[in-house]
Design a protein that fits this description.
The structure is a single chain. With 254 residues, the chain is of the alpha/beta class. The protein has ten helices and ten strands. It has two domains: 121 residues, Rossmann fold (3-Layer(aba) Sandwich); 118 residues, Rossmann fold (3-Layer(aba) Sandwich). Helix 1 links the parallel strand 1 and strand 2. Helix 7 packs parallel to helix 8. It is elongated. The model has no long low-confidence stretch (mean pLDDT 90).
């Protein structure tokens, strides 16, 4: 796999022999791996850009509630996942504190070292291929605006583009997306017409839609809101604000 800059934080009560062995095997696979004890401050300091954590538990040894609460909140906020290692009672206890989509995989002790490392390398292969990224379809008849928004989003999301409502409908017949950013004012088939078509189709009716609109006057905004999309953005929104709003949306709609 080579050194790709991938990082993992390995959380355990103490840096025991087995913990050191597991960390060494992970590092040998090309993933930088750092030991951190059960401490909110130390986990927070070490986390950085790591998208995967491993939580290791000895028999009858579990992180305190404050650590579990911090991990659960932070995993959701950072869109990260955790691997749980331990005896079944400890894994069951921690799993009750976390939604299943935060737990990438569990390993009961004794741990199969090779399978554990294979799971981690496969995870980072998926990260590198963009498999875990949310997918967004941008629909707008202005090619320049399409390209600008795509450039803004492509580092964080899988981005597809359609330059008309009908092209979007055709694309959605073959592809699944997590969110549609839909231009409100389009020729031929307008944004509201596209939304109506999406809502009337069993395959697409539950896809979240946010309108893109160039009109900020109260009457125009009220007309957009009346269609009950998941939200709307003014087209003069800045990159940082758009990314922040999208992150908030996906956290709230897990």
């Amino acid at each position: 796999m080579g050194d790709t800059g991938n990082r993992m934080v390995f959380i355990a009560e103490k840096e025991s022999f087995i913990v050191r062995v597991l960390i060494k095997k992970v590092q040998d696979s090309g993933v930088f791996c750092q030991f951190v004890p059960y401490s909110v401050n130390e986990i927070n300091a070490a986390w950085g850009d790591a998208s995967l954590l491993t939580l290791y538990m000895d028999d009858d040894v579990r992180p305190k509630d404050e650590v579990l609460h911090y991990l659960t909140d932070s995993l959701e906020e950072k869109n990260c996942q955790v691997i749980l290692l331990g005896a079944q009672p400890e894994i069951d206890f921690v799993s009750k504190h976390m939604s299943s989509d935060l737990v990438y995989k569990t390993f009961t002790r004794p741990i199969d070292n090779e399978e554990f490392v294979k799971t981690i390398t496969e995870y980072y292969d998926k990260v590198d291929s963009g498999e875990f990224k949310k997918s967004i379809l941008i629909v707008d008849d202005d090619p320049n605006y399409l390209n600008v928004v795509r450039q803004w989003l492509k580092a964080d999301y899988k981005v597809s583009m359609a330059n008309s409502g009908l092209q979007a409908i055709k694309f959605l017949g073959k592809n699944k997306v997590d969110l549609i950013l839909l231009d409100h004012e389009m020729p031929v088939t307008s944004g509201p017409q596209v939304l109506e078509m999406l809502r009337n189709d069993e395959e697409t009716k539950n896809i979240p839609v946010m309108f893109l609109t160039g009109k900020s006057d109260k009457e125009s905004v009220m007309a957009v809101v009346a269609l009950k999309p998941e939200g709307y953005f003014l087209k003069n929104i800045k990159r940082g604000e758009l990314l922040e709003k999208l992150q908030e949306f996906f956290i709230l709609h897990k």
